[in-house]
Design a protein that fits this description.
This protein is an alpha+beta fold. The protein is built from 12 helices and 19 strands. The protein has 2 domains: 34-209, Jelly Rolls (Sandwich), CATH 2.60.120.200; 224-329, Rossmann fold (3-Layer(aba) Sandwich).
């Protein structure tokens, strides 16, 4: 199992909607002041100078920045869009990746006005559309059209004086006149509005929008508030036999959340209540003990393998049982998501044919 590729972006690849065309929808209520929609490939030393447009952005006290990109490296710091005063060592407003995480910061002559960063990462080589929206209520970071982080602190272009440089792919200041934080990858588009775009508008600006649930899960991962995750199901979740002594995916998830994401996420709890041999009907019967007793923030359910093996139980029986599990989750304060097993080989080629779970989940 390629553990890191599976867990790096909290399942972003698996949960994202299919990639569509590269057409970007026009946002109602006024178009962008800046819209660079010519894709550019950056090699870690190149950049696109947009300084002739910085004057239009400098007065903004609120608005939206949207960037669509894909990375081709794992540089520690990669600028997506940055405006700065190149005569000062630390006067800039920058949207960038830091260790793969999305970061937005504003500094005025060395004073940090705002500096926020996600724990979720976006340097996986996939196409991502990220955004920052700022107004008097605070700062919000978005990915795939969905909010993934928010804070009450706020600063925008007008809060940084003497802005005269603007670029895709680098930041420039008096200590680094040749530039710093160069990007390696492709920037498909960068746009700036003088207003905050709503979620529907941000989704429309994303050629590959994320599911709403992914945004919610990313928000939990990026929050400092401790959360309880319940992972339940059958032997695939239990991980007692078929892993042959290797770690199960709930154990990988535990390490991802409680260790790799750092403090204070080590105060989160990941509870594996999977039971080998369980069917969906048994899960419903024991739902209180296996799920709601833990007051989870997020519930992951992988169930159905043993239903397939049960004689006389087909999709027409499984579907209402599956719906009941969702309804039960809805009664507790948790975000739920259901997972389907994806076998890579047949271990029982002569056994009964399975049925398509996807149709029962729609």
């Amino acid at each position: 199992m390629r553990r890191r590729s599976m867990l790096l972006a909290a399942g972003a690849a698996a949960l994202s909607a299919p990639f569509g065309s590269r057409a970007f929808a026009a946002a109602p209520g006024g178009g962008p002041l800046l819209d660079h929609d010519t894709p550019v490939d950056l090699d870690g030393g190149e950049y696109v100078d947009l300084s002739d447009r910085v004057g239009a952005l400098a007065p903004l006290t609120a608005g939206t920045i949207v960037v669509t990109f894909r990375t081709t490296s794992h540089n520690e710091a990669m600028t997506l869009l940055s405006a700065s005063d190149p005569t000062e060592p630390s006067s800039n407003i920058t949207l960038n990746l830091s260790g793969g995480a999305l970061q937005f910061s504003a500094r005025e002559k060395g004073a940090v006005l705002v500096n926020v960063m996600t724990r979720t990462r976006y340097d996986d080589g996939l196409l991502h559309t990220v955004a920052v929206t700022v107004d008097s209520s605070g700062t919000r970071l978005h990915a795939g059209g969905r909010t993934v982080f928010e804070t009450a602190r706020h600063a925008f272009f007008a809060d940084v004086s003497e802005l005269s440089a603007l670029a895709l792919g680098r930041n420039v200041d008096s200590d680094h006149p040749g530039g710093e934080w160069f990007c390696t990858g492709t920037v498909e588009r960068a746009a700036v509005w003088d207003r905050v775009l709503g979620e529907a508008e941000l989704v429309a600006q994303s050629p590959r929008p994320d599911l709403a649930d992914l945004g919610t899960i990313s928000t939990v991962l990026n929050s400092d508030t401790p959360a309880t995750w319940v992972v339940t199901g059958d032997s695939i979740t239990h991980g007692a036999l078929h892993t042959n002594g290797w770690r199960s995916y709930p154990e990988h998830w535990t390490e991802r959340v409680r260790w790799e994401l750092g403090k204070p996420k080590n105060r989160d709890f990941v509870i594996d209540s999977g039971v080998s041999g369980a069917t969906s009907a048994e899960l419903i019967a024991m739902f209180g003990e296996r799920v709601t007793a833990f007051s989870p923030r997020v519930v992951s359910i992988t169930i159905g393998t043993n239903d397939i093996a049960t004689s006389g139980l087909g999709p027409e029986v499984y579907r209402p049982i599956s719906s009941r599990s969702s309804a039960r989750c809805g009664r507790c304060p948790a975000r739920r998501f259901r997972c389907s097993s994806r076998p890579t080989r047949s271990i029982r080629p002569s056994g009964p044919a399975g049925w398509d779970f996807r149709g029962t989940r729609r």
